[in-house]
Amino acid sequence: MRVVNTDIEGVVIIEPEVFGDSRGYFMESYSECEFQRLVAPVKFVQDNESCSRYGVVRGLHYQQEPYAQSKLVRCVVGRVLDVAVDIRKGSPTYGKHVAVELSAENKRQLFIPKGFAHGFAVLSPEVIFAYKCDEFYHPEAECGIAWNDPTIGIDWRVPKEDVILSDKDRGYKML
After folding, report:
1. Domain for residue 162, yes or no?
2. 131 is catalytic
């Protein structure tokens, strides 16, 4: 696997080695040994998967301490714009974000360490999105930031009139 640094330290793109032939392809989507050696000493404890349609924006989500989560995310079917926002108080990149297109075709993954809010926008007709977390889900620690916060300035690449939000995501406040 190849690790590509982003503009925010700790948030990295992972490009797996893909072996293709006339039958299709094979890739190792995760190796604990390689991940810990090349990315971070993280122990994942929960895998999640969601299915969404075009225009859905999920996020920006995070869990408060002591239940903050690191995530390793990828798109199994379709295409998303995946976003990580630095919410670490005192960080030189506080309020800045990284946006990366993840797709079934490019097979890229994004690692988002603790201290970041996370969200994605669906760019294809349908998406199956998978993510590994290093902390279990704790509903009492769940928080979020408004997807359209102008101080963050994310271009979700979906026209505002096409954005589909959950009631919970619609109610989050600005950073």
Report:
1. yes
2. yes
Q: What is the pTM of this model?
A: 0.95
| pLDDT range class, residue 40, cuts 50, 70, 90 | very high
User: Do 89 and 135 meet the contact criterion of CB atoms below 8 Å apart?
Assistant: no
Quote the pLDDT of residue 139: 96
User: pLDDT digit string (tens) for 111-128?
Assistant: 999 999 999 999 999 999
Spatial neighbors of 52 by CB under 8 A, at least 6 apart, are 58, 122, 126, 127, 129
Q: How many domains does the chain have?
A: 1
Instruction: Please indicate, yes or no, if residue 119 is contained in any of the structural domains.
Output: yes
Given 62, 97, 118, 131, the catalytic residue: 131
The CATH number covering residue 148 comes to 2.60.120.10
Task: Supply the pLDDT for residue 58.
Answer: 97
Q: Measured between alpha carbons, how far is 127 from 136 in angstroms, rounded to an integer?
A: 23
Q: Provide the residue range defining the domain that includes 99.
A: 43-170
Which of 30, 61, 67, 137 is catalytic? The answer is 61
